[in-house]
Structure formats: structure tokens, C-alpha cells
């Protein structure tokens, strides 16, 4: 009798094991199945379908805010821009839930922008939350849901593509991130949509640079947008340029060791920073739009000096006992950086962000993009 009971129990255990192994990943209990699925996600070796790149150079501008003067769907068309990226979505939970960012998605915006001749690649961020992102990338069901929700948004708003902006990620999640990007690229390409991914230059910190496998990302995406700015970020202890020309060019050269030139888009800043120092120590920093920098020079009657090493104008002044220092981004510095597009035959330009620029930026950018296509 005991032997019969043992055989019955063994049979039941084998049956239950087969049920668990056959269960969908999102319903699987912790154990070997989950480990297998995570290993699959971390491989990052799923090959995307044929991509969907533009016939010419990319001219993209990000749009995180709207007003009458800068709304890309309403304002007069900018000839050198062929893509707008409204900053609409963010993954807000480890279960893959996607929510709206500060700017709400708007189908009318898409229709109007497309009518003006722009492609619309909506931005999706990870909220720059490393802990949430770590849990998401350890959760196959969460990654699947995130991809499903992105694809639903693509269809709902009739988007031309997606710009993925995942930043501040644990270095240990590098392979899992590549796997997520690869699968998202596959789904987007099934719908003939363009996929671009934002990264930083190689060689930085674990959370802001070492977390990216740029070669794997380039294999999965149509474009890799390198954010060639924040050489001296807002929290820096030292004053300096946001994007000096030498730093940018060295970064481009490093990127090209991992990313094909025909996929690499050069991201450029439309802003500067005021560094406020006392006794040589940075005490405060303020973001400065191009128009505000010009206004400062006019109102304070400041003398600007061209800093050839930085590829920018430099000026300084005293206020409230502090030395205020600025390496200024303007049309001349943008033209100099944009010349790297033709020098290295890059895929185009991206600018952060709409509303920070002065109008003279667009003609010089147009000239450099036109020169790069000759």
C-alpha cells in the first residue's frame, strides 16, 4: 500500500512539473523557468527585421514642452528638421506600466506635425530611476508589458517611430537592457516603425555610460542618438563647457568603434550654464538658454572671447561677490559641432531641446546637413 502511494505521489509531481514548465512566463513561479527566461532576455541576440531609416540625414529636435512659439505641430516648419520627438511617455513601474510624462500625448499633434512633413518619434524614458529599472529588467513579464504598451501607443497615436531614452541604469543590468532593446526593436520593425535609442559617450560612470552595450544597441536600432553634452554636468564641482569641440570629437571617434556611422546621430545642446564661483569653488550653477546668454552680454556690455579649444565664446562677470563664468553655445558653436556630421559621415543631428535656441541656429544647421549629403 505504501509503495502504491509513493508511486501515485511521484506521478503527481511529474505532472505538476510539466504544467509549471508549460505555463506562460508571466504566470510562472520563481524557479528554473524564470531563470531561463531571464537568461533569454539578457542575451540581446534576437535579430530585428529590416530597419526603417530615413532616405537622407536625420534632423531631429526633442520637444518636452509646448507653447505657441515652439510647438512643432503649429509653428512654421523648420526646413532642416525632419523628425520631432515629443517627450510623452515613461515606464513608471517594474511591472512595465507606461504613464504620461509632463507633456501629454496628442493625436492631433501627430497629424499636424506629419502634415508639415515631420516624422514623429515619441520619446519613452525609464523615469531615470535605477532601482525601478533594475526590477523591471529582472522581470520578464514586466518587460513584455512595457513593450506591449509601447506598441499600443504607436498604433493609437499613429507614430512613425519611438525614441527610447533609458538613463541612470545599474551597470549589472547592461545585458538585460540590450535584450529589452532588441525585442522592442523587433516589434517596432514588424510594424515598419523607426527605432532610435539615446546613449552617452563611452568611458563615463557605471550608471550613465558603462550600462550601455552600444554595439548591441546599434544592431537592434535604426539610429543611436549620442547625447554629446553635459561634459560638465549641472552637479560638477568644476566650471567648464557643456560640450567643447575636442570632447565632442573624441567622443564621436570612440562611438564609431562600436556604432556604424550610418546609424550614429550627433546630439547637440541648445543651452549653456552659468557657473557661479567663490574663491575658485563652484557654489551654484544655472542653465542658460541661448537668448538669455545673448541678453546677458547685451545688458552687461560684456566682452566675449572666442575660446578656440572649447569651440565656444567665453565670457564672465561679477555678481553678488561671485565670479559668473559662461562657455556659450550659439549658432557658431553649433555649426562647428555639426561639421563633424560631414567629417565622419554621420547619420544626422539631434538637438536638446526646442525652445532653448535662437533662430539663427537653424540656417547654420541646414547648411551643415546639406554639406554632409554632397
TrEMBL record:
Signal as a keyword?
yes
Keywords recorded for this protein, A-Z: Signal
Matches recorded under SMART domains = Glyco_18 (SM00636)
Single GO term (MF): chitin binding
- Record's keyword annotation contains Nucleotide-binding: no
Instruction: List the signal peptide residues.
Output: 1-22
**Where would I find the GH18 domain in this sequence?**
56-372
Q: Which InterPro entries match?
A: Chitinase_II/V-like_cat, Chitinase_insertion_sf, GH, Glyco_hydro18_cat
GO terms for biological process, alphabetical? carbohydrate metabolic process
Which PANTHER family does the record associate with it?
Answer: CHITINASE DOMAIN-CONTAINING PROTEIN 1 (PTHR46066:SF2), CHITINASE DOMAIN-CONTAINING PROTEIN 1 FAMILY MEMBER (PTHR46066)
- Recorded protein name is Spore germination protein YaaH
- Which species is this record about? Schwartzia succinivorans DSM 10502
